[in-house]
Write a structure and sequence with these properties.
The chain is an alpha/beta fold and 464 residues long. It has 13 helices and 19 strands.
Length: 464
């Protein structure tokens, strides 16, 4: 997409943002939040986007409104757009940023397998005063990395198998001159990552562990590790998922897709931060070599785990990935992202992800980053009782809790992962509700893969 800035509009399609108070001259348009109407002035089409009450406008309001307006323009098959930016106010010091994010993220649609391809934004002109083109270009790059993550999640699971995603990690590392380590299935077993090996052993697509090391500030020892669950398809294993739940399980690698999106952005933007990106990649298949419920497997750090459900596999691969990352990289903090539990949807629905952490400052910073980017988080408790429920009678831990009826499943799943983080600053983001949208597009959130977590983590890292 070509991005330009101007003080006046040059394209024949204009996106204009209006609050209720300044929409009085547009007949029969009341500028309610996310309301959109199209009016014509000769060959020019003006797409008016409602922001609601002026005093309630935020960056998220702008982002969502522009996304709705861009989709309306694309439905008219108009691909060259002039976007009139709002003035600074409640939308933030740089109102062009959420507007640009809304245009790029809202204009995304996955049409690879459609005969009739949907139009895309070909050229976008930001119309306003003193817009920093370089900063806008960085914002564009970040949003394109979000869309890259979306593409990975939306792709067929037979394509995005573990080795394919490991190859994506290699390509990103090459593009940014970053160090990379990829463990094959033989190396995974040899090094003792027994949980990752167990989850992946039933598939014709063997598991991988991919680690990218970005060191933009070599003078600092501060390193943030971002670890993504990468179950490229989750059948549930021997605890096979039923119809109604299994159809979208290609999205179970959305955590790793977000990590790859973050690392791709770091490769392009070269900020002065140190980040290790870890992708725990496996296909949880059912077959003659699939791991069994009731069996005990040993993690990389020596902890033994009783398998009560082969469908509670994400926490297993994360446990090994976190343990290996801790020992070989010694990060200052660890943030993992995982489509971990259906229980988080019961708690928070599809608009907010669950946040779990052993560190107050880390949790506060992540929450603030989510509020800024619109990728919102809500924190849950991690009392000792939850960790105790993950103790096993036959092994050190069990992979589902001893609570009846699956109570507190999201919290106990996080507590299991926390056992492997230990004393290291750690946060777990349960993105099972936010990573994939089965309904119609809303605001900047498209149908299907959302790319949740990429902008959130980059904001947390101070990358803009």
């Amino acid at each position: 997409m070509k991005l330009t800035t101007s003080k006046t509009a040059h394209f024949s399609t204009h996106i204009v943002l209006l609050t209720k108070g300044n929409a009085l001259n547009v007949l029969d348009f009341y500028a309610k939040k996310n309301d959109v109407t199209v009016r014509y002035e000769g060959a020019k089409a003006v797409v008016y986007c409602g922001l609601g009450d002026a005093e309630a406008v935020t960056g998220s309001t702008v982002r969502s409104a522009v996304a709705s307006g861009v989709r309306a323009a694309l439905e008219l098959k108009r691909s060259d757009l002039s976007l009139a930016l709002p003035r600074p106010g409640r939308a933030g010091r740089n109102p062009w940023m959420p507007a640009l994010e809304g245009a790029i993220l809202g204009g995304y649609k996955f049409t690879k397998y459609k005969k009739d391809k949907a139009p895309v934004v070909r050229s976008l002109e930001l119309v306003g005063e003193d817009i920093p083109l370089r900063s806008a270009g960085r914002c564009l790059a970040i949003c394109e990395c979000v869309n890259f993550s979306r593409d990975l999640v939306n792709e067929n699971a037979h394509i995005t198998h573990p080795e394919f995603l490991a190859a994506q990690a290699r390509a990103i590392a090459r593009s940014g001159n970053m160090a990379i380590e990829v463990l094959t299935e033989k190396e995974i077993r040899k090094k003792g990552l027994g949980l990752l090996a167990a989850v992946g052993q039933g598939s014709e697509y063997p598991p991988r562990l991919a680690i990218i090391d970005y060191r933009g500030n070599p003078g600092s020892k501060d390193v943030t590790a971002v670890v993504g669950k990468g179950i490229t398809f989750d059948s549930g294993g021997q605890n096979l998922k039923p119809t109604g739940h299994i159809e979208t399980m290609r999205c179970d690698m959305a955590g790793s897709a977000a990590v790859l999106g973050v690392m791709k952005a770091l490769a392009a933007l070269r900020p002065k931060v140190n980040v290790t990106g870890v992708c725990a990649l496996a296909h949880n298949a059912i077959g003659e070599h699939a791991y069994f419920p009731g069996d005990v497997y040993k993690a990389y750090n020596g902890t033994t785990v009783e398998i009560l459900s082969t469908d509670a596999e994400g926490r297993l691969v994360l446990a090994d990935a976190i343990s290996y990352c801790k020992e070989t990289r010694s990060p200052s903090r660890i943030i993992d992202l995982a489509t971990l539990t259906g229980g988080i949807l019961t708690c928070l629905g599809t608009s907010v992800a669950g946040l779990f952490s052993n560190d107050e400052d880390l949790a506060t910073r992540l929450f603030a980053a989510g509020e800024d980017t619109g990728e919102r988080l809500w924190r849950f408790p991690l009392y000792q009782e939850y960790a105790e429920s993950m103790k096993s009678d036959i092994a050190d831990l069990r992979n589902t809790s001893s609570f009846k009826k699956g109570y507190a499943s999201s919290i106990t799943g996080a507590a299991f992962i926390g056992e492997f983080a230990g004393a290291t600053q750690w946060a777990h983001l349960d993105i099972a509700g936010t990573a994939f949208n089965e309904e119609s597009a809303r605001g900047e959130v498209p149908q299907f893969a959302t790319g949740f977590g990429v902008r959130l983590l980059l904001k947390f890292l101070g990358v803009e």
